[in-house]
Amino acid sequence: MIERIDNDIFNLNADKIDIDGTYDKEITLELSPSAVWQSLKNIFPEGKDCTIHIDNPNKQTIFLAFSSVSPYQGQQYFYPDFVIKGMNHETISKTGKAPNRSEYPYILFKAADDSSIKTTISAGENKNIFDDINKVSKNVNQKIEEQSQIILGIQDSIGGKEINVDIYPFKMQFQSLENTFPDNSTLNVDYAKTKAAWTEVYFSKSSDNNTDGVQDIYRSNKLESGSKQIVAPSPSDYPYIIYKGYDLDATISIL
Predict the structure, then answer these.
(1) pTM above 0.85, yes or no
(2) I want to staple 84 with a disulfide (CB 3.0 to 4.6 A). Which of 11, 27, 64, 158 is the partner?
């Protein structure tokens, strides 16, 4: 519980969002070179991406490790991913995940008293809240699109999708379009400016002017505008709608 509270306090301090949206900043510990053993508190929360980097131009002997106890006793446990033991290279780097602070609460360090040695331990990363929001937004929009396609598919399969076909302009010879209305769906046929001339609209087996076996949708009558209801036939039996009229301003809407 103490470890958890400690991590929460760290997160409260580290995860503040700046005005530019930056949060969860990288935390860096700089170690001063010393010929005697140093014991420092491990300040890094578990699992953060961690990097140890040492510039050692004079090739002094370096020892650095996350430790289970303090001070150095030669018998404590060291976190294996970050043990730097007796190295004397000009540059030393190790990367991995920060250990659990309850198991490795200390960092032990020893080097020559040489000011040219520069040692840093860094963990965490610079994130931006706006990038995260954009990722979430992109994922949400993708999920919405996927669900919308599923819903449209269901609507199509049960005939619940609203389909509207506006027929205009009319010509004096038959024209055709594809019948997209589901079988047995109830259609509202709204018409206007059809009183003065002959206007014909049919469900048809063919896309030409063959009117054999057609099913009536609308034929002009004495009313210039109005509405009627019909039941749609199977599109496999009547794959086309054919229409013509002599009043070129007439309109028919099928819903």
Answers:
(1) no
(2) 64
Check if the beta carbon of residue 70 is closer than 8 Å to that of residue 139: no
Dihedral of the alpha carbons of 8, 20, 50, 118, in degrees to the nearest 10: -120
Paired tokens of 104: 């490795």
Count of other CB atoms within 10 angstroms of residue 48? 17
pLDDT single digits (tens) 120-147 = 999 988 777 777 777 777 777 788 888 8
Q: Which two tokens stand for residue 180?
A: 């997209």
* Nearest CA among 56, 77, 52, 76 for reference residue 64: 52
Q: How far, rounded to the nearest angstrom, does the alpha carbon of residue 185 sit from its chain's CA centroid?
A: 37
Neighbour-count burial of 173, counting CB atoms closer than 10 A to its CB (0-12 exposed, 13-18 middle, 19+ buried): exposed
pLDDT in tens, 93-108: 999 999 999 999 999 9
What is the DSSP track for 112-181?
-S-TT-EEEEEE---EEHHHHHHHHHHHHHHHHHHHHHHHHHHHHHHT-S---EEE-S--SS-EEEE--P
Are 34 and 110 in contact by the 8 Å Cβ rule? The answer is: yes
Closest CA to 251 of 162, 170, 197: 170
Enter the tokens of residue 255.
């819903």
**What is the Cα–Cα distance from 151 to 161, expressed in whole angstroms?**
10
